[in-house]
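request received
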Amino acid sequence: MTGPWLVRRLAGDARRHTGAWLGIALAFALAAFCAAGARVTTHAGKGEAAAAVEPSALVITYLKDDLPPADVAALQRVLAGLPGVEAARLVSPREALERLRGELGARAAIVDGVGPELLFSSIEVTVRPAGAASALAFRLRRLAGVADVDLVAPPAGAATTLPARFGVAVLAVAVGGGVLGLAVVLLIGGAFVRLRGRYRGELRVLAALGLSRPASARPAVVLATGAGALGVAAGLLAAFFAARVLWGGPSLPAREWGGGAAALILTAYVLSAGVLRVRDVVEAR
Amino acid sequence: MLRLLGISLRVAGHRVLDEVSLQVRAGELVVVEGGRGAGKSALARVAAALRRPEGGELWIGERDVAGLQDASLPYVRRNIGFHADDVPLLPRMTALENVMLAAGARGYQPAQARELALRALGRVGAASTATRPPETLSTSETRLVALARALAGAPPLVVLDDPAAGLAAGDAGAVLSAMLGACEAGAAALCTSPDGAFATAVVRAGGRRVRLEGGRVLAGGGPIGIVAARRTPPPPPLLRVEALP
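response:
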């Protein structure tokens, strides 16, 4: 029974067993969300760990007063795009003066009457690893519009160990992920057990009417795979947006997303085809 | 059309059918009558290729079905209109859709299947149930719709296990009339019944009665292997096949 009959049976089965299909979609949405979330968290965590182990250095580039604003903006853009540069921030003379007042604290009166024009504008470049900062500073000193370059290195012995919060985060993800993973397995298993129960009697009837095993189970396998695919899509979308909120980006290449989705959809197909093996559910002869 | 030769069957160690031989020709209606535990339902399931016998031959048309592989049996079953209480209607589908499914299994497209289903429902007197799901039908209505499902599409072989059970006289008459209509169209029809009155009605309508007791045919098996009723063990299997007319 293919073509028009298959469409009729798909529509009928979807109507009659809506709960089973929603259950399967939800189970796979959760599975996809957990799998993608765990992968993204691990990936982002590695980045944080690397960041924590490798400290950064600050290269302060003081700019000459006669450097046009357009050139300043262009220099900032170029610096921000260099390898190892995490940030390139423009500090105006006014901001530099306020910062100086803040650092002087009670003795800020010293700079009363001092206008911002007496301070340089600067570009503060954060470089990681710190070892690359000196080479950048050397190159910057040779530029025409640069008055001076200061290198603020990290303190000696800084951060070669992971911060404590990272260890807690890993533990939390591991425990939470394990519990959630178990819940997902139980949810998926339960959804397919329910599917088998729903179809047990029907497959027997269809076999008595003369439908072959594949024809009997085909609509259910198609619907289960489709429900799984929809659930996987929803779960991956949710993980994608959650990753953007938490880590500022998906942090995974597209092929990893695609591969994970394909694996989960294939799992839905294999599970439904296995669960609905007509031979097992038709009365023994 | 249907020939059972020396069919034997055990269920859970208990012999249910013992060297049963029976023939139903095209256009013939045969009722297998017997009491509780006589083996009627088992015989019906064997005849419908839903149960594989331990011994003997099952000929449907020109083919010995008993020796076929499992994967081939659906192609045999779709030419058999079968009804039994343990093959219920599918829930949350209308009666019409249930009957259409059987016609679809027999190769009819949806539009044609719909027409055949409506006709079958009308033949058994259940046309008013077409748009209702089984959950809303009475026991009698459910049985009539299931019978319509077995008859839809004019299958060449019809096997009905106790089709008149629980039906009022009028409905039982409609069922008998539908079976006779199938026979007139050329089908071979085999039904079972514990009800002597129904069996008598079949005989009066031109059918043939076969008596089954303790898994053995007592009388009326047709030209093949007819053995008189006896309380002693049956004759050796060599005698079970006599010359065909």
